[in-house]
Design brief:
The protein is α/β, with parallel strands linked by helices. The protein folds into three domains: about 70 residues, Alpha-Beta Plaits, CATH 3.30.70; about 170 residues, Rossmann fold (3-Layer(aba) Sandwich); about 190 residues, Rossmann fold. The strands form seven sheets. An eight-stranded mixed sheet has the order 5-6-12-11-7-10-9-8, sandwiched between helices. An eight-stranded mixed sheet has the order 16-17-24-23-19-22-21-20, sandwiched between helices. Helix 5 packs antiparallel against helix 6. It is globular and about 75 Å long. Bound molecules: adenosine-5'-diphosphate (ADP) (2 copies) and magnesium ion (MG). The site of one adenosine-5'-diphosphate has 12 residues, from helix 4.
Length: about 600
């Protein structure tokens, strides 16, 4: 069986000569395999398509995918968004007393699967021309626990609660204070209890429009917990939270699973490892189809994910392994110093930041870690010259390219226009094209309107733009937000190679430990009392920095026996106590 997909996001029928049709061998023989519809998009008639794939190579925008799939999958088609549209095969299983994780790249159908399980989409089982119905779905799943589940959903016996992915959008749809928003969700008088669980007590009276991304995330999670449902879905609960908050949220969600059904989509693998009991990996081809793999225990699932190979299914979905080093890398002390600073102090009305003296070397990538609201962004802005400190500062005049934490763009035009407008002849630079644009897969975004990009697409563009500008120091504030796990690893490699090859320096603020591990040569640590007093120190070599950071937040990591990947220890477990006593929080 092969499927034909026309990705409308990429298809630019006004700018091409319908190569998909002109070069199609059956069309040339007089068979109407490709039809130009009224909308202008081509329609590929799958029954007539021979699967030769010539259209795939001829389409100038890579908008066509013809994919051979095993015959038996046909019976597992759960939903299809129209002819030549995205197809979802199989569904995650509902499991009691377990947090069910869903792990997979962007565009593979995770949200579609969740929307089906939450009842927001009635799946059409591939019959996109007829009205879908729960009765058909229940018949389709007859004899499985899913039939039971959907019958209850149909009969209103199950209520579902969703923590949406994009918390940045909350202020656009809700005006008022945090307390007012939470009150709406609070049917059981648990507002204060839940606010305390998420450490929101001091945020309750603040205006939703004026709180940080991390606070918005906590508010969204609190609102979900306050609702009285039977099934809970958390779509990326960790974005914008610091590692301490991520673990706290993980614990809260785990507790919920003892009473309710819980599904989680998460791209921070260390957190996914901690939060989920079992995981469904999703694989396929983004925009074309997605398959929900069999459920695996969490450790196996994440190891398989890093390896890029699903043993049971005999599917390789990545041609390289994501690997971790057991021993800390040496700091590149032979490299020349780019900038140095003496003691720095920056004061706002309610906040003081102190940064101990430090220096940045040419060609080095520095990870910047620490709790939210301890001044990481403020320090980055001091280096960028955007914020003037009360004391100290940087002597050397350097050029800085800065990617802010929250990326928004009002740019009215396509990605390609924005890139050409901002970067000009840089767009022709071979190194930039091969080492930045290509791995970040920017060309697939070229024809999209900037304002229609998804969170992950916007992040890829923002990284590409900031690396495209000429600078000595690149400051990237939370580049992993909204990227999937794979894109994070790719972005980490891109940034590293760029700095190494061009002899530039980078500071990367991020909360994803795997991302920091892969990207950083050395590490700066922020600590103190959030929103009151922040203290920055370093950069330190990786071992020392990780120990300082993880000691502050009281988290230890052990190593996985098969893959060496770091795994968060259960607080109070043997490994946790033993490593604490040795003062080795990360490199055991
Ligand atoms: P994920 O959550 O894994 O990023 P989604 O479930 O959001 O993936 O989307 C999977 C694919 O389905 C995407 O390629 C998207 O373009 C397509 N898709 C999502 N919603 C619709 C829709 N309403 N109509 C047509 N295609 C859609
Ligand atoms: P981080 O990046 O570590 O999360 P930030 O540097 O963004 O921390 O913020 C540190 C503290 O400084 C926060 O409490 C924040 O509210 C406060 N702050 C940041 N910018 C300003 C400003 N322009 N005016 C007043 N307070 C600010
Ligand atoms: Mg910040």
């Amino acid at each position: 069986m092969h499927i034909a997909v026309v990705i409308h996001d990429r298809c630019q029928f006004k700018k091409c000569n319908y190569e998909c049709k002109t070069y199609c061998p059956p069309v040339r023989m007089g068979t109407e395999t490709v039809i130009i519809t009224e909308s202008g998009y081509p329609r590929i008639v799958e029954e007539l398509c021979e699967g030769c794939g010539i259209c795939v190579h001829k389409c100038p925008f890579e908008a066509v995918k013809i994919i051979g799939l095993p015959e038996e999958l046909n019976e597992d088609l759960v939903h299809q968004y129209g002819e030549n549209g995205f197809r979802l095969y199989r569904l995650p299983r509902v499991q009691r007393d377990k947090v069910v994780g869903i792990l997979g790249p962007n565009g593979i159908g995770k949200s579609t699967a969740i929307k089906i399980l939450s009842g927001a989409i009635v799946p059409n089982l591939g019959d996109y021309n007829s009205e879908p119905s729960w009765d058909k779905v229940i018949k389709f799943f007859a004899g499985t626990e899913m039939a039971d589940y959907f019958a209850k959903l149909r009969d209103g016996e199950l209520s579902t609660v969703m923590k949406p992915q994009y918390v940045d959008k909350i202020p656009m749809v809700f005006k008022g204070s945090v307390r007012e928003l939470l009150k709406k969700a609070d049917t059981q008088g648990r507002l204060d209890e839940v606010a305390a669980m998420l450490e929101l007590q001091n945020t309750l009276n603040r205006d939703i429009a004026r709180i940080s991304g991390g606070e918005l995330q906590s508010v969204a999670i609190a609102a979900a917990l306050l609702k009285d449902g039977d099934v809970y879905f958390f779509d990326e609960p960790s974005s914008y939270l610091d590692i301490y908050q991520r673990l706290n949220v993980a614990k809260v969600i785990r507790d919920l699973a003892s009473k309710k059904l819980v599904f989680v989509v998460e791209h921070d693998l260390a957190i996914m490892d901690f939060i989920a009991d079992v995981i469904h990996i999703m694989y396929g081809s983004d925009g074309a189809y997605g398959i929900v793999a069999n459920v695996r225990n969490t450790r196996n699932a994440i190891n398989s994910y890093l390896e890029g190979y699903l043993r049971d299914e005999n599917i390789r979905f990545r041609d390289w392994k994501i690997e971790f080093v057991v021993h800390p890398p040496k700091r590149k002390s032979e490299l020349p110093v780019l900038i140095s600073w003496d003691y720095i102090e920056k004061r706002y009305d309610n906040f003081v930041l102190e940064v101990e003296p430090g220096e940045i070397r040419t060609g080095e990538v520095i990870g910047v870690v620490g709790p939210n609201a301890t001044g990481k962004t403020t320090f980055v802005k001091v280096l960028a010259g955007v914020v003037k400190p009360e004391r100290g500062g940087v002597d050397e005049e350097i050029k800085v390219s800065y990617k802010p934490q929250y990326i928004k763009s009002d740019y009215d035009g396509t990605v390609e226009e924005l890139l050409n407008f901002t970067l000009k002849e840089r767009m022709l630079n071979n190194f930039y094209r091969a080492e930045v644009l290509h791995p970040l897969r920017i060309k697939y975004l070229y024809n999209k309107e900037v304002k229609n990009l998804s969170g992950g697409e916007m992040q890829r563009l923002a990284i590409a733009l900031s690396l495209g500008l000429e600078a000595d120091l690149y400051l990237l504030d939370e580049p992993s937000a909204y990227l999937d796990s794979n894109e994070r690893m790719v972005a980490a490699k891109v940034i590293r190679r760029y700095m190494e090859n061009l002899g530039k320096s980078a500071m990367i603020v991020d909360h994803d430990v795997y991302f920091i591990d892969i990207i950083a040569d050395s590490i700066m640590v922020f600590s103190g009392e959030p929103a009151k007093h922040g203290i920055g120190s370093g950069p330190y070599p990786m071992r020392e920095g990780m120990n300082r950071f993880l000691k502050n937040v009281s988290i230890t990591f052990r190593r996985d026996g098969d893959t060496n990947r770091p795994r968060i220890n259960k607080p109070g477990s043997y490994n946790d106590r033993e490593q604490r006593s040795r003062g080795e929080y990360y490199y055991a």
